[in-house]
Design a protein that fits this description.
Blueprint lengths: L1 H11 L13 E4 L5 E6 L5 E8 L13 H8 L12 H7 L3 E6 L4 E8 L3 H13 L5 H18 L7 H9 L13 H6 L2 H11 L5 E7 L3 H12 L22 E7 L6 E8 L5 H14 L5 H9 L3 E9 L5 E9 L5 H17 L4 H17 L4 H15 L4 H11 L2 H11 L5 E8 L5
Parallel strand pairs: 2-6, 7-11
Antiparallel strand pairs: 1-2, 3-5, 3-6, 4-5, 8-10, 8-11, 9-10
Helix pairs in contact: 2-5, 4-9, 10-16, 12-16
Length: 438
């Protein structure tokens, strides 16, 4: 049981990218529209090359969901100059590591190398962007890989919670569909559709390249220009997603999971997206409610009253709409309605009273610690630079975001809780064991 709760927490708590000591960076654009950010840190002989593309699960035909996540895998297949399967052999053979990940809003690829392999990292990412091989063999291979990933990550106890949240909280915006997509959509897709998707979303003017670590800025700029200038710009991606109608009455819903025996209760709210001041306040609210074993909800419901196996309040950040969720799995004979009422009681207190000065200072200390401890690696800095540029539209947040948290007052916490977290603004989702006849 415990491992599934941890897995859910890791899916839900994406967290905000905080900052460490002041990060110096340099930006420039190539003629093809590729935005480049460089960060020089010669304290260790390590370099990271990474590219974040402005494409995620929300993009594309709703009858062909999951393409962005599929491409996260497909673009490791090879290129005109890299044989099939060689991409993932070249990197470790040269002392490097690599990975990629996809959200509803973006796709991120990176390689970490000894600094004398900088040029190799740039070449690999330019090959991915310039002329990857997208053929039927690669599509068929990765289709099976994605299906196996779905079995391992989603077809597990409580693994369908995010999909259930999305499909009930969103009705018209593409956040309603799971990031991994529907397998029948991938099965039905043609090779022409995959190539068209690449041509639309993987142009240099729809991406940001980060080079960070033990580099020389002028030499690196020259190398970036040499390797990426040949890539042709694509037409600008135009998005016009439908907007959700505000929730003004409580929506009650149920979802079923054949892999669980204990039900869960989830109350979800649509909240402001990345970069909005209220989104930062909601980060603090989620930490106040369930940030550790001394938090309000854990101490009351799990520790003292022993009504829940786990309890959480999370603010899942996204670009267009974020999701604030209250989540609990009951212990013993506790009813789901009782668990939700206990959580609501603490929300109401936040809406009507100021949190104590002591709790407020504790919150500030938590965020200060995250500020100090985060971006302590070159990989963390690279990811933050890309994220702040692409999703927030302000790279300087890597140094300035902590000041936003510092400026939040106890009154702000009360007012934002009142503004967004009332029962008439949410979906109350009962996540239940699936019976054989269902």
């Amino acid at each position: 049981m415990k491992k599934y709760l941890v897995a859910f927490a890791s899916l839900m708590i994406l967290g905000f990218p905080a900052n460490a000591q002041k990060v110096e960076f340099t930006e420039f654009d190539l003629d093809n529209g590729l935005h480049v950010i460089m960060h020089q840190d010669n304290s260790a002989p390590v370099v990271i090359t990474s590219v974040m593309y402005d494409v995620g699960g929300k993009d594309g035909d709703r009858e062909r969901t999951g393409f962005a996540h599929f491409f996260e895998h497909l673009l490791f297949e090879g290129s005109e100059n890299i044989g099939r399967g060689e991409f993932m052999k070249i990197i470790p053979a040269n002392g490097g590591t690599f990975n990629a990940n996809t959200s509803q809003d973006r796709t991120y690829y990176y390689e970490i190398f000894p600094s004398n392999k900088l040029e190799l990292g740039l070449w690999l990412e330019s090959e991915r962007m310039l002329h990857p091989v997208i053929d039927q063999v690669g599509v068929d291979t990765q289709n099976e890989v994605v299906k196996e990933e779905k079995r391992q990550r989603y077809d597990q106890p409580y693994g369908g919670i995010l999909e259930a949240i999305g499909s009930n909280l969103f009705k018209v915006h593409p956040y309603k569909d799971p990031n991994i997509g529907y397998m029948e959509h991938l099965d039905a897709a043609t090779l022409e559709e995959f190539n068209a998707y690449f041509d639309k979303y993987y142009g240099p003017n729809n991406a940001v390249l980060i080079v960070a670590g033990d580099i020389d800025l002028e030499k690196t700029k020259t190398l970036v220009t040499d390797y990426f200038s040949e890539v042709q710009a694509r037409p600008e991606v135009v998005r016009n997603f439908p907007q959700e109608t505000p929730i003004t009455e409580t929506i009650k819903a149920k979802a079923y999971d054949k892999n669980i025996q204990i039900p869960a209760i989830i109350a979800t709210y649509r909240t402001p997206g990345y970069g909005k001041r209220d989104a930062y306040v909601l980060d603090m609210i989620s930490s106040y409610l369930s940030g550790g074993k001394s938090s309000v909800l854990y101490k009351k419901i799990v520790d003292e009253q022993k009504q829940a196996l786990t309890i959480q309040a999370v603010n899942l950040g996204q670009k267009d709409y974020s999701v604030f969720a209250l989540f609990g799995i009951p212990q013993g004979e506790t009813e789901l309605s009782t668990l939700l009422a206990e959580m609501d009681e603490e929300i109401v207190k936040m809406q009507t009273e100021l949190i104590s000065e002591r709790d407020y200072q504790k919150l500030l200390n938590q965020f200060e610690n995250q500020f100090v401890n985060s971006n302590s690696s070159i990989a963390g800095i690279a990811s933050s630079l890309a994220t702040y540029y692409l999703l927030y539209g302000n790279v300087n947040l890597i140094n300035e975001e902590i000041d936003i948290y510092r400026s939040i007052t106890r009154e702000d916490i009360r007012d934002v809780a009142k503004k967004y977290l009332s029962p008439n603004q949410r979906v109350e989702l009962e996540y239940l064991p699936k019976k054989d006849d269902q």
